Amino acid sequence: MKIKKIVTISIIAVCGYLLSPATPAVYGADKISFVIIFLGGPDTGAEGETIIRQFMGSLSKLSGMKKDSIQGKYFNNIADAKIYIQQNKNSYIMASIGFYLANRKSMNLSPLAVVQQQGNDREQYYCIVKKGAHTSLKQLKGKILAGNVLYEDKKFINTMIFDNKIDISNYFQLKPSNRPLSAIRKLAAGGYDAVLVNYREYYSLKNLDLFAKIQVIHESPKMPALGLMMIDTTANRAVKSKVVNAVTRMCGQPDTKEVCKTFAIDGFDTIDEETLSNEITKYESAR
User: Fold this and answer.
1) Predicted pLDDT of residue 77
2) I need a labelling partner for 260 at 20 to 30 A (CA). Which of 6, 144, 195, 199 fits?
3) What is the pLDDT of residue 125?
4) Residues 241, 217: one domain?
5) Buried b (16+ CB within 10 A) or exposed e, 79-98
6) What is the model's pLDDT at position 27?
């Protein structure tokens, strides 16, 4: 009788463990998330869902990872993205070098790939004005500065873009704007005094009539155009080679290159943290 009672208790205990709420969390803990942060990009509704669906489909096909083992989310602002990432630690993140530098330590980020844009793997930022309106940053003190780049970390903007020469929060009237092209049009019409854009945005202006109406009065030093990073977790390390191999091939495959066209990039090339050592030192040594 005593033995029978012990066996019965053991069975109940095992069943209780298997059916406990904690069990699904264990099974789902290694699900890999892919987070796309595209500041000033399409809305996060239907258009955003199309972007992430394209990306996840291409990734699954090229990596061999099962669709039910991965999940994706698209964001056009950093605040919402960070909330999602905090809840999904096994995340690969497509974001800027600004995001990486600002969150490298707190999120334990590892850089994986730079993006190729018009044959260039360097990022650069430009402060542009209406042609003839201003000739230097000194003339812009107290004026309106707009652009989606203003959603980036302020320390990154001050340190890496303006080389610690100004504090944008005190120097300008800041008007962050989701749509870069709309901001440029407003600049040309006299609604803004200056707009801050990145390399991709500046290059795209060269094909428009607007380009003849603007001029650059400040450009940042060049830096690696970091585009892919991961949170350094055991689960992420286990699939790192698959993910990196898939992403670096994605833009060259006829049936998956549409994803790259969405972001106006030509491809991805691998990178390691040592390549970013100068940028890391400069950012982290600044106040």
Assistant:
1) 87
2) 195
3) 98
4) no
5) eebbeebeebebbbbbbbbb
6) 33
Q: Which residues of 20-51 are buried (b: 16+ CB within 10 A; e: fewer)?
A: eeeeeeeeeeeebbbbbbbbbbbebeeebeeb
Q: Check: CB of residue 263 under 8 Å from CB of residue 246.
A: no
| Residue 94: closest CA among 239, 272, 260, 223 | 260
Instruction: Based on the fold, state whether residues 180 and 59 are members of the same structural domain.
Output: no
Position 10 in a domain = no
- The secondary structure of residue 148, as a DSSP letter, is G
CA 108 to chain centre: 15
| Integer CA distances (angstroms), 213 to 125, 138, 186, 206, in order | 18, 21, 12, 11
Q: How many CA atoms lie within 13 A of 268 on its CB side?
A: 26
- Same domain as 273, residue 150: no
Q: What are phi and psi of 110, to 5 degrees?
A: -120, 125
pLDDT of residue 26: 34
Print the domain residue range for 215: 125-221
CA distance 59 to 31: 14
In a domain, 110, yes or no: yes
Q: Distance (Å, rounded) from C-alpha 220 to C-alpha 153?
A: 15
Global confidence as pTM = 0.87
Write down the pLDDT at residue 29. Answer: 53
CATH number for 151: 3.40.190.10
Taking the C-alpha atoms of residue 203 and residue 285, their distance in angstroms, rounded to an integer, is 31
Nearest to 76 by CA among 35, 36, 34, 39: 39
Same domain, 146 and 271: no
